[in-house]
Amino acid sequence: MAEPTKRKTDIGPPHYEKFLPPVIKQNYGKWKYHEMPRPGVLMHVAESGAKLWSVRAATPRLMSIETLRLFSKLADEFCGGYLRFTSRNNVEFLLDNEKNVEPLIGRLKQEGYPVGGTGAGVTNIVHTQGWVHCHSAASDASGVVKSLMDELFPHFERPDLPAKVRVAFACCLNMCGAVHASDIAVLAVHRKPPKIDHSRLVKQCEIPSTVAACPTGAVRPATVDGKQSIQVIEEQCMFCGNCFTVCPSMTMADPENDGISIWVGGKVSNARHEPMFSKLAIPYLPNNPPRWPEVTSAVKQLVDVYAANARPFERMGEWIERIGWPKFFKLTGLEFTKYHIDDFRHAGESFRRSTHLRQSQG
Amino acid sequence: MAEPTKRKTDIGPPHYEKFLPPVIKQNYGKWKYHEMPRPGVLMHVAESGAKLWSVRAATPRLMSIETLRLFSKLADEFCGGYLRFTSRNNVEFLLDNEKNVEPLIGRLKQEGYPVGGTGAGVTNIVHTQGWVHCHSAASDASGVVKSLMDELFPHFERPDLPAKVRVAFACCLNMCGAVHASDIAVLAVHRKPPKIDHSRLVKQCEIPSTVAACPTGAVRPATVDGKQSIQVIEEQCMFCGNCFTVCPSMTMADPENDGISIWVGGKVSNARHEPMFSKLAIPYLPNNPPRWPEVTSAVKQLVDVYAANARPFERMGEWIERIGWPKFFKLTGLEFTKYHIDDFRHAGESFRRSTHLRQSQG
Amino acid sequence: MTDRKTPHLDELEKGPWPSFVREIKKSSKSPMVRDLLGQLERSYTEKRGHWKHGGLVGVKGYGGGVIGRYNDLPEEFPEVTEFHTVRVNQPSGWFYTSEALRTLCDIWEQHGSGLTNMHGSTGDIVFLGTKTSELEPIFSKLTAAGYDLGGSGSDLRTPSCCAGPARCEWACYDTMNFTYDVTQTYQDELHRPAFPYKFKIKASGCANDCVASVARSDMSVIGTWRDQIQIDQAQVKAYAQSGKLNIQRDVAGRCPTRCIEWDGTSLKIDDDNCVKCMHCINAMPKALSPGKDRGAAILVGAKAPIVEGALFASVLVPFIKMEPPYEDIKELLGAMWELWSEHGKNRERIGEFIQRIGLGNFLEQIGLEAVPEMVMQPRTNPYIYYDIKN
Amino acid sequence: MTDRKTPHLDELEKGPWPSFVREIKKSSKSPMVRDLLGQLERSYTEKRGHWKHGGLVGVKGYGGGVIGRYNDLPEEFPEVTEFHTVRVNQPSGWFYTSEALRTLCDIWEQHGSGLTNMHGSTGDIVFLGTKTSELEPIFSKLTAAGYDLGGSGSDLRTPSCCAGPARCEWACYDTMNFTYDVTQTYQDELHRPAFPYKFKIKASGCANDCVASVARSDMSVIGTWRDQIQIDQAQVKAYAQSGKLNIQRDVAGRCPTRCIEWDGTSLKIDDDNCVKCMHCINAMPKALSPGKDRGAAILVGAKAPIVEGALFASVLVPFIKMEPPYEDIKELLGAMWELWSEHGKNRERIGEFIQRIGLGNFLEQIGLEAVPEMVMQPRTNPYIYYDIKN
Ligand code: SRM
Ligand code: SRM
Ligand code: SRM
Ligand code: SRM
Ligand code: SF4
Ligand code: SF4
Ligand code: SF4
Ligand code: SF4
Ligand code: SF4
Ligand code: SF4
Ligand code: SF4
Ligand code: SF4
After folding, report:
1. Which of A40, B97, B106, C351 is most buried (CB neighbours < 10 A)?
2. Confidence bin at A4 (pLDDT 50/70/90)
3. Contact flag C383-D305 (C-beta cutoff 8 Å)
4. Using CA atoms, how far apart are residues B206 and B227, in angstroms rounded to an integer?
5. β-strands D219-225, D201-204: how paired?
6. Stretch D332-346: mean pLDDT
7. Confidence at residue D54, expressed as pLDDT on a 0 to 100 scale
8. How far apart are CA A83 and CA A69, in angstroms?
9. Alpha-carbon separation of residue D232 from D242, D248, D268 (angstroms)
10. Do residues D225 and D170 make contact, with C-beta atoms less than 8 angstroms apart?
């Protein structure tokens, strides 16, 4: 039905220029180099000689508008109201006046938003909704991330690692946190087939699309007490939850068996090595809120072993490739199991098809 | 049914010791090093100081017993009757007396079995039956090999290439010549779907196993004028001939369209680089007996470009990996087509999934 | 502030890292947020979530931008029986002014929980939790203030980009402008789902790929160059003398194609074999910078595992000049979307679609020439679909 | 000799490489061979073969060893209407004496075409072309002379090996003995097809893999070592001084793990990171040799493309001491064959079988422990079949 007064639609986001500080407007595309005067601060120098100080502070990503108003207030005080957020959910204050850098850092710390996350260290964890907002979650997101960052905090404040260590979290195999290419990926998993509520299924779900959703063909059409419904061949189910995504009556959540898996050695950048996927390190750790101690200590240990053994500029995956996976499992003391061997579509491509073996007995 | 007189079976091959010359028996497992005093000759030196000269001569592999008798005669004359054949179908005479080396080489040359094939050159071509004996052949084997070796002969007599160049030939996709891992692989191909003789099919073929034989599911059961038979979805057929292997009534041979494809950059050894499969260089060249000029000149050109550009110890595939495939196609002038892009099961694994691109405009 | 006991969550207020629990409590004057807190505490106790699949909710005329959420404990936590997410399209590069932020906060305070994500994984401003009845008011106030919704469902998702030329010396094209331009050009595709599945665009100014486009976008645009790396030999020496960098081992020794020569006094780069990985430039920002003939590589098809397994994006155009209004890229997008929309299966990402029909066929259909840059190597299996006219 | 005109084939008598045509003509006192020559000339003219699928032919009590062949031009070439191949199991390493060869020639002269392949691609002595009626006589004369048939069909194929310790300083185990031993042990599996498909065994004494086992055998046994490469520094210097070898660039520079250090006077190898590729040893045979703690790696599943695509063999046992009577290996073979024979599909090679059921499951079934050496890297997709007891 047509509307009386013309409704505004499809205007898109505001133009970014409105939000750029003068020093950026004037030197847009003319930056010459940058330095890191101290952890958490980047100094970009333009061809013109002009300088921009970016002060990066931690955020929990899930933020109250009160906090956004606080950031706005600080931005007004120290940098003419100009700030931005990063692709990893930190906040960056954009200063053209060096004198304000230290005072701002002090205030941020005092307010509980410490500065850091630059260089060869650990920065904010890309993550997802978890129990705060998603129906699919096999664990909470924010709680695990908070616990992990408390543990890894020293590496946020000081870039004291061989290279960047990117940590990501996702609360189900949909991987909204895109954990498939992180130095350390924390992935919540279901480990039981969906429980089917046949009565609701009939109303809620489209059978063909539900069958099609299963990567392994475990979902089959079936007649259950007279009605067209669905059956799951449990041996073929690997608990991905994709059937649930399209059919709400196939619930995955299971407090007993849901938990967390840990993956390592992924990267996104093209620097040196081409991008790499994260590979399985630990198939399962229990969901243990509010602090997930098993998860935090496992991650801390991975970072420690990496820090002790990798060479400068070597990302986690590059380091492991150099020493070989057998050595990685030896150094970390992690167990290698049949779960570590791929058995999906292209599994064979991951087998060692040569005699390039280190054979070291030590 | 039981037999009257006990029939000798399952005795296996004779024990190899019977066939080893004394110098080998005495130094078995105690060789220290080897040298190549001249092309086609290997001198193995034992810890004891004893020496063994192996004189390697070309054979066409397809040989008359008259030739085997000639080899026997030469072996008796020059090395106490001891000889062997190699995994690439050359013959090796095993001498314990250096004085006999040159005379033997002379005689072999005179008889038409030239000496060579050692070191960083071209040795005999692993090949198959072709029109001489196989029903599956999309080309002849011996004829193509003879034409190629005549062309590459200088590299057989002199190891004058950066590294070994292993050439292999197979006359159909069954690849009895195991061309899937050769520096240069010459593979005969069909390019039309099988022609089905329904009348014979009914008697000759088992329908389920024929359907199962098709890698792409192009073969389907069908009723043809009343009888259970088979139909081929032609768009899905990639001409592998596997249906014909299990069902003689689905013939592939097609003088117009059969021909030859050329593949490069495979290797088997673990030396330096892990084993590599051969990759498509030229999708199709015509079958042009008796000399296959298009094929021989294409292969010669590949060897020449390789020889001119590769570094010492660099096998064809290692060289191409160093310079990159775009450069390979540029240097050889070969055309890159959609046929070069994999589209079978694991095709996606071969896509370039990074920005590691040379971008050179030259 | 909050009335209920939340022992588990309170534990998460401790420690140096800023606490999301504190954030939630900061907003707990909103009854919605108080119930959220209660429900979340219960999830922490029971180790399970209490959200249900969202039915389709949204604003008039839009097919996306809102994620519907309902809880499964309506009696206990009535205020979050409806708790929808509103995705608001962020400005390029996530730049704001304090004034802009305050405007957003005011709207969200009046019509929602007051909780946000800055930002969602795709890049949107996420307004976390409101009731169906508030959606239209929020939308009209947002548009009045110059904002619009982001994507969800089977549509073009909100494009995002790195700070690029605004804040980085390595930007090989204008990521901010490109992202703004495509976002504006494709408002209809963004707001009215018409694809087989979602389609994401991410733009990074160089191979460092600071928005993870190669892993997370159906079309990934990554800056690069075609000519020579610019070298300031004096600055190279300075790095060498600084003693902080071992140029031979850590720069030349880590070049993926080993195309750098360092003789202790001057650096030589064989640019024909340089694959523009950025490493040497990253290591010596004062001494090296990308060439002058700049543009981008376009890759296609990245995604998370569901359904066929995770994919990185693969090269579609090895190099393209990035000149507004980006007609060439838009033609390419148009051709890809048309083919994919016609032949793609339901919930089949374009990366999966390309693998199913074959990259060769895909190229033919969209009228792009096959080049060796698109593959790591030519095919190794002999299953070639020769098509012979006759 | 031959009566028919063969212009095409005659052309192939020219040139430096020994001519198969001359070989055929050498045997053309046999009427079979004259017809073969005629039929082949016709194939050269028409560009197509004239052989038909072989029906099952063979010798009593054996299911393999003979490849049946019939032509499709019986009127024109009656002598090759039947033209079967007999596969005779070669001695280990293809070693012969002149006397042994003559014995074989005599048998073949009396009962067949007189044409051979020395050798077939699998390794057999191939007697090329005879009639069904001759098969039994050939067999009894062969066995009388101490020879037996090789494999064909869905059985164990004739194992083969490199010269190994008989003629090579790099042999890390006795390839000749191992091959003879398994061939003798498995005569029944070799002669009476009972597998889902063929199974090939090839044995190479070191990673150079001179019998291409990694590409061509269902079980590939490749020699290797666990301790340090033996270095004779004096000889290394000699190579350096010879001027023929650039040790830094061509040896150290080509080590796959870059674990060699060469300071111009002495060579250091970090053996913990050496992957036993053989390159440095190949380059300096007088200076370097494999370690003393020798054995082999066992790999499984290589094959040509049909059906699922070509496969290289993959690591099953990273290191095993090779001690006669090789009980451990035979147990492994037994376990693999039992599982594969029971669950393998018709014409499914073991390499394809392992991929279908999953390497993890395969290991569990044959009672082998999973170790990281078996893979290039752990799984990247999260589709894990957790099995939780309860
Ligand atoms: C601000 C931000 C972009 C944005 O528009 O938001 C950014 C900014 C910079 N990145 Fe980045 N990167 C940012 C996310 C990323 C990401 C994406 C991610 O992590 O999800 C990547 C890919 C990570 C990966 O490979 O998995 C990324 C890979 C890099 C690299 C390559 C590192 C490597 O060696 O692999 C560099 C080069 C370097 O650090 O030397 C780099 C370099 C830089 C520089 C130095 C560029 C410049 O001159 O301005 C900036 C400061 C780096 C630093 O923080 O140490 N940036 N950078 C992002 C900050 C996230 C944060 O809050 O911590
Ligand atoms: C005689 C034979 C083994 C047999 O029992 O029959 C043999 C014998 C030797 N091989 Fe081999 N190789 C033989 C087939 C192979 C094969 C198999 C094949 O080609 O199908 C390979 C794998 C080829 C591949 O990688 O695709 C092979 C890869 C090697 C290598 C690794 C070369 C490389 O750099 O990749 C070496 C080491 C070297 O050459 O430095 C080697 C070295 C040797 C040595 C030097 C070993 C020794 O000390 O005795 C022998 C002489 C080498 C030469 O001819 O230059 N042999 N060698 C085979 C001779 C075939 C022929 O008639 O020409
Ligand atoms: C909000 C957000 C996570 C976050 O906390 O930031 C999110 C949340 C959801 N994602 Fe996502 N995805 C979000 C970014 C991603 C990303 C990362 C990215 O875009 O860079 C990915 C992986 C990259 C990719 O696209 O492959 C991602 C891959 C998925 C998938 C798997 C799709 C696939 O093809 O693999 C699903 C399942 C689906 O679409 O049915 C999914 C589905 C969902 C749903 C709608 C759950 C569902 O089945 O309905 C989640 C709603 C949660 C909620 O209650 O709000 N989400 N999702 C992100 C969007 C915020 C924003 O707009 O900025
Ligand atoms: C004679 C020989 C070729 C030669 O000229 O040397 C040969 C000849 C045939 N092979 Fe082969 N294969 C021969 C070694 C191979 C090899 C190489 C090897 O063994 O190292 C391979 C590739 C390696 C492998 O096994 O994967 C090979 C892979 C095949 C295949 C494909 C099997 C597969 O799983 O990929 C077939 C098709 C089949 O078995 O149905 C096949 C089938 C055949 C048949 C029986 C054709 C058929 O469909 O019936 C051929 C009979 C030709 C004839 O008229 O005599 N042949 N075949 C080789 C055996 C001689 C010997 O015993 O020494
Ligand atoms: S990862 Fe899964 S559970 Fe987490 S937000 Fe995305 S869809 Fe929801
Ligand atoms: S959870 Fe995944 S694997 Fe299991 S039935 Fe559902 S879709 Fe299939
Ligand atoms: S490759 Fe094909 S045609 Fe040639 S021998 Fe083997 S099966 Fe026959
Ligand atoms: S030739 Fe190959 S692809 Fe074609 S129908 Fe036969 S088996 Fe299938
Ligand atoms: S992607 Fe490149 S251009 Fe963009 S911010 Fe990162 S380093 Fe700078
Ligand atoms: S950008 Fe990368 S590839 Fe190019 S020279 Fe520098 S390190 Fe080497
Ligand atoms: S495989 Fe090794 S041991 Fe056997 S012959 Fe070749 S080089 Fe010698
Ligand atoms: S054998 Fe290979 S890996 Fe080992 S040191 Fe020599 S070259 Fe390096």
Report:
1. A40
2. low
3. yes
4. 13
5. parallel
6. 98
7. 72
8. 12
9. 15, 17, 11
10. no
Q: Maximum distance among all alpha carbons in chain A?
A: 81
Residue D41 corresponds to which amino acid? Answer: E
CA distance C155 to chain B (A): 24
- Report ipTM (2 d.p.): 0.97
Q: Residue range C319-338: average pLDDT?
A: 98
Q: Which atom of ligand 1 is nearest to the CA of C164?
A: 5
Q: Is residue D2 over pLDDT 50?
A: no
Is the pLDDT at C90 greater than 50? The verdict is: yes
Q: Go through B135-147 and write b for each residue having 16 or more CB atoms within 10 A of its CB, e for each that does not.
A: bbbbbbbbbbbbb
List, in sequence order, every residue forming a beta bridge with A260; answer none if it has no partner: A188, A285
**Three-state SS at A51:** strand
Interface mutation vs chain A, best among B342, B346, B350, B357, most A CBs within 10 Å = B346
Structure-token pair, residue A232: 């799951």
DSSP H or E segment with residue B56: strand B51-57
Compute, in angstroms, the gap from residue C382 CA to the centroid of ligand 7: 14
Is B4 at the interface with chain D, CB within 8 A? Answer: no
Q: Name subunits touching A (3+ CB pairs < 8 A).
A: B, C, D
Q: What confidence score (pLDDT) does residue C56 get?
A: 84
**Are the beta carbons of C378 and B325 separated by less than 8 Å?**
yes
Distance, CA of D103 to CA of D138 (rounded, Å): 12
Nearest residue, CB atoms, C381 vs list D305, D380, D381:
D305
Question: Scanning every residue of chain A, which has its alpha carbon at the shortest distance from the alpha carbon of C35?
Answer: A132
Confidence of residue A361 (pLDDT cuts 50, 70, 90): low
Ligand 11 geometric centre to CA of C72 (Å): 69
For the cut 90, the answer to whether the pLDDT of residue C2 exceeds it is no
β-pair type (D84-88, D125-130): antiparallel
Ligand 6 proximity of A216 Cβ (cutoff 6 Å): yes
Of A189, A344, A352, the CB nearest to D374: A352
Measured CA to CA in angstroms, residue B266 lies from A50, A81, A152, B119, B344 at distances of 55, 61, 46, 18, 19
User: Beta strands A62-64 and C115-118: pairing type?
Assistant: antiparallel
CB A180 within 8 A of CB A166: no
Neighbours of C325 (CB within 10 A): 12
Q: Hey, how many other C-beta atoms are within 10 angstroms of the C-beta on D11?
A: 18
Residue whose Cα lies nearest atom 8 of ligand 6: it is: A214
Indicate the burial class of C192 (C-beta count within 10 angstroms; 0-12, 13-18, 19 or more). middle
Q: Please write the tens of the pLDDT for every residue from C182-197.
A: 999 999 999 999 999 9
Cα distance between residue D296 and residue D204, in whole Å: 9
Contact status of D379 with chain B (Cβ, < 8 Å): no
Q: How many whole angstroms separate alpha carbon C33 and alpha carbon C39?
A: 10
Taking the C-alpha atoms of residue B98 and residue D137, their distance in angstroms, rounded to an integer, is 43
Contact B201, B247 (CB under 8 A): yes
Nearest to D370 among A216, A340, A350 (CB): A340
Q: CB-side exposure of D325: number of CA atoms within 13 Å?
A: 9
Indicate whether B175 pLDDT > 80: yes
* pLDDT tens, residue by residue, B87-123: 999 999 999 999 999 999 999 999 999 999 999 999 9
Contact check, Cβ <8 Å, A353/B275: yes
Closest to A28 in 3D by CA, of C368, C173, B305? C173
Q: Which of B175, B353, B356 sits opposite C313 (nearest CB)?
A: B353
Quick check: CB of B86 below 6 Å from ligand 2? yes
Segment D316-334 shows an average pLDDT of: 98
Task: Find the mean pLDDT for residues D95-114.
Answer: 98
Pocket residue to mutate for ligand 2, from D162, D210, D214, D277, most atoms within 8 A of Cβ: D210
Radius of gyration of chain C (CA): 25
pLDDT band at D380 (very low <50, low <70, confident <90, very high): very high
